[in-house]
Amino acid sequence: MTTFVSENSYMKKIRITKQFNFETGHALYGYDGKCRNVHGHSYKLSVTVIGTPITDPSHVKLGMVIDFSDLKKIVKEEIVDHFDHATIFNKNTPHIELAKELMGRDHKVILAEYQPTSENMVLDFADKIKARLPENISLHSLKLQETQTSFAEWYASDNQSDRSDRENSNLYI
Ligand SMILES: [Zn+2]
């Protein structure tokens, strides 16, 4: 039996995920565990967007929610290029002195307005990615893995009242 599926017969939502890797150093000032020391993680970030596959037969992206390469470009420009082989510090702690010393020696440093935990980083990433997505595509979720067994997740459904126009909480150097 042959089953025909018309591309126009339904408008189902599909989730698309792309995964990224980057190496970032951090230190948690005032924390009572090992992450208070300057060290790095091999972060793994999964970015999931949701939308409806394009049904216009004349569209070059026919059948796609978003071209994987377009999603890659957004996340690379907004996150990976900044965070890879950088060290992130909470600028509102005495670590600002260490950060300035490293910056003076031409190190790649990110001064954040927040404690650089996976939780806060994933919140920051959500704002940055949402600001770049096309109108018909929504950010569904983010998963940031700090180690093989530890990760933080952001879900749009958990943050319905989130204001997407929240000002950037980061200053890149
Ligand atoms: Zn750590």
Whole-number tally of structural domains: 1
Number of strands: 7
Largest sheet: 7 strands, mixed
Helix/strand-derived class?
alpha/beta
Would you write up a description of this structure?
- The protein is of the alpha/beta class and 173 residues long.
- The protein has one domain: Tetrahydropterin Synthase, Chain A (2-Layer Sandwich), CATH 3.30.479.10.
- The protein has three helices and seven strands.
- It has helices at residues 68-83, 95-104, 118-130, and strands at residues 14-26, 39-51, 86-90, 109-112, 138-147, 150-155, 170-172.
- The chain has a seven-stranded mixed sheet, with helices on both faces.
- The longest helix is centred in the middle third of the chain and has 16 residues, at 68-83.
- The termini are far apart.
- The model is unreliable at 164-173 (pLDDT under 50).
- The structure holds zinc ion (ZN).
- Zinc ion (ZN) is lined by residues 26, 35, 39, 41.
Task: Write out key terms for the chains shown.
single chain, 173 residues, alpha/beta, Tetrahydropterin Synthase, Chain A, seven-stranded mixed β-sheet, 3 helices, binds zinc ion
Question: Helix and strand layout, with pairings?
Answer:
Elements: E1 14-26, E2 39-51, H1 68-83, E3 86-90, H2 95-104, E4 109-112, H3 118-130, E5 138-147, E6 150-155, E7 170-172
Parallel strand pairs: 1-3, 3-4
Antiparallel strand pairs: 1-2, 2-5, 4-7, 5-6
Could you write a compact summary of the structure shown?
It is built from three helices and seven strands. The protein has 173 residues and is of the alpha/beta class.
